[in-house]
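Forwarding the complex inputs:
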Amino acid sequence: MDTFIQLTVDALTLGSVYALIALGYTLIYGVLKLLNFAHGDVFMVGSFIGFGVLQLLGGTANPSVPVWLLLPILVVAAMAGCAVLGVVIERFAYRPLRDAPRIAPLISALGVSFFLANSMQLLFGAQPRNYDTFSLSNGALYLKGIDIGNVRVPLLRIITIVSAFVLMILLWFLVNRTRTGKAMRATSFDREAAAMMGIDIDRVIVFTFILGSALAGAAGVMFALRVPTTVSIGFISGLKGFTAAVIGGIGSVPGAMAGGLLLGFAESYTEGYISTKWSDLVVFSILIGFMIFRPQGLLGRADIRKV
Amino acid sequence: MSDSTPPIPDSQTPADGPAVGRDEWVARHQERRFTSGGRLGVVEERVRSAPWWAWLALFVAAFSLLPAVESSGYVRFVAFQTVLFMLLALGLNVVVGWGGLLDLGYVAFYGIGAYLYAFFDSDQFGIHLPTIVSVPLIVVAGALAGLLVGLPSRRLAGDYLAIVTLFFLQLFQTLTTNGDSVFGHNVTGGPFGLLNVDPYNFFGHDLAIEHQGVFATSYLYLALACFVVVYIALRFVDRSRTGRAWRSLREDSLAAEAMGMPVNWLKLLSFSFGAAVAAFTGTLFAAQSASVFPLAFYFVLLITIYTMVILGGSGNQAGVVLGAVIVGPLLEMLRDPGKSRVLFFLALVGGMLLAFRLSRRLAIVGGATLVFGFAVHELARAIEGSWVAGEKASGFQGAIDHWVIAPDHLARWIPPVSYVGVIAAILLLTLVRGRLRLALLPPTLYLAAFVWENVMLPKPEPTRYIVVGLILIGLMVLRPNGLLGEHRVEII
Amino acid sequence: MASLLELKGVSLAFGGLTVVDCLDLHVDEGEIVSVIGPNGAGKTTLFNLITGIYRPDTGDIALDGQNIVGLQPHQICGRGIARTFQTLRLFLNMSVKENVMAAAYSHTKAGVFRSMLRTPGMRREERAIAELAEQRLAFFGKRLMGYRWDQPAYSLSYANRRRLEIARATAANPRLLLLDEPAAGMNPSETHEITELIGELRAEGGYTILVIEHDMHVVEGISDRVVALDHGVKIAEGTFEQVATDEKVIEAYLGLQTHTRK
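Prediction (whole assembly, three chains):
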């Protein structure tokens, strides 16, 4: 039972990170119909921005700002940095290809992903970077927490999960309740028709990249609060992220959240009860299962073939 | 309606007239292109009209003369590796160029071929099949594996296939890396793979990897022969009803289906074909290197092969071979700082020649860049002598470092700032026009040279791949049809 | 004798919108039948149903007495139904001749391995396909002949693209040819030519033809029988004169005249 609770908390943390990444994929896929392969690397850059800012602020052992302010600063800095990165990628690698064949921006995205990962390795090397969150106020974030049964859920976990969910709710609100959100939905439904209705498509796309990349940045920091980050996490986290998006139904915002959590649970339980080695296999099986039995995903809609 | 014998449409003169107008002018644009060039034009015409097999023969002949000219084992090995790249590019071209599918698991099939060969021909399971048995078996297995992976995504759009195949690549990594303890059995040898894989053997004779300690050319010639066979076989398929059907479904899959072509089956077929070629190439790799290990078949290789295919012109066989011949040795040269320094400055000069031709602007920009460089260099020397420490080096490096600042020690903040700065400057250059662009060019070029010399050259490993990534992005944006791919009209 | 094509009670709805509603239709061997109706009447959807791109919710579609519902589009083409598209769907980057040759796929056999080896049988078949393509293209006189064979399809004029679509459809050796607005976007002389051509197609090629057309002159010129659709329902059927004077048809095209006048 204790293991189960522990694994569930783990699953929620991991799942919310995946969900945040998946949201970026889904949003960008929605408006551009593009699988942004570089998204995972934006996430990785986010985790490094968090690390860099943390070092600038004096590191975890002796931070120059109070702890309650430190974590938000890291997240916001990563979000801002990634947003800029996302906009630059869109402007220079995708926008010139908007009317090219479908496969062109996909390949460009692969190139961007490869470029980002290797540039980061060039500049920062391959060694892992540890935020060392345990040193923050003498381990209070780990030692304090909520007790469920015999298990103490550390404060840091709770903060991570809650803030991820707050971000998701904010996003849901933004997409469903604001004018910009409406423009995004219109664009994802039919880009040309939306343009003719007076929606500035370029602005919507840029905004979507800001949003998606910022979420990836936040996810990057949340990820790195848990385990050390390296320049190579982008590939595998990105892969999991868009698997989550596809499982949830690509293009669907609640779907991405559901898919992310589902993956988090699948991975966490596999690692806890079976073996850490084979979680990829389980996730792949889930993906294949969805491809065969429910290709539109959990919450996606089946498309009518247009002729 | 005409009930009588149908009139030959020849007689319909009114509609025949306009047909020889704009239409024909457009249709004959190709003929007009080469009527200008005098003696050179004749040569060009000859070269262009040479049949494909002449090109192939010429290419292969030149390639096989290489060992006669160059006795270094390293160069021969690079040549062999390039032939492997050529084979891989040909296979990927079937999937991406002809089938129009984004197969991101392609190198996993290469890995499957190599691992299967290691299973069939090594001490791992104590099996030592003759090559003429094991290789055909592996090719079939590769094709079947391709079918299996393609199957779940056959009804789905390209994006889904991309995800499933990319995940498949990841899974292949996980399985081979962790395959050293499957219920206690060591199957794949784990992260370090399997060693002592047999060389190819024909009728009881091993094809030796080395000859007196130097790379044996037999593998180069064997690979080259395989390349010729694969090239011709694939070319014949392209010129058959299957090839036409592939092209049709890439153009308009719905129309192709309505015209009687089984689109899903054809896509699977191309997928499986690519997988078979990759698996076959894998056996060559395993036999020659006598080992297999998971990281030989990863994302890096995938992107490299994609770059070759895109650079040469996806869909064009000769093009993708050219792409492999360019990118393969390029990556090899970038390993060596000396060579990559020369390459960089050659690329710089070549790029400027391409952009400006032999014009006054070239002279202005070139001169300004040189002057700017020397000025900055002198300024740096005046401030702090150790900033120009690089000029003590000998040869080309020393000469270059009389122009580029090369400090003996870099502060920690310099690499990230200068690297991001040069990228920002290059991106900015694409946004501005006219004089401003000309004015910004010299400092940008100088900064690029500085970054290349001080930040990138010392670390060849990421640098090589950054170059690959840049080629890929640049190509997609500037010339998506590659070097030899024909220009395509897209239906909107 | 049974009809070549027979639809019985075919319905199709997208979500809540019924596009084709319990439609009965038959086309006899050797007939030219025109389908008319205002925009959104379900004409093109009817073609998509017949060719298997959509699957009807209810009802049967039979070709020569055999049910073809549930078959894949390429299988239906193999059984002998070929079509053209209202919005041209040529293989634009392929040459004119290749466009036509590609459509011979369903009635040719050479597999991949035979193609790799260039067996004599495969080469014979290739020659036959090329001849077939040339013959189909020759049907349109000089327009698609000679140097045009090797030009990409995108270099053709609009009218020539329509012709090429017809040539491509006939290369599939169909028994039933579905033409979706063959005269759309053509000038009067080209329209006139198309009208003649559809007659010739039947006379020379022996095809049975089902055609969607808006131009009433074309419809009048070619049809043995006319079927009028409105909102997915068949509202009239008969000779051109019968249908053209049918009150429901006039109503569908022009609105409720009798009421608006009062």
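The first strand of chain C starts at residue 5 and ends at 14.
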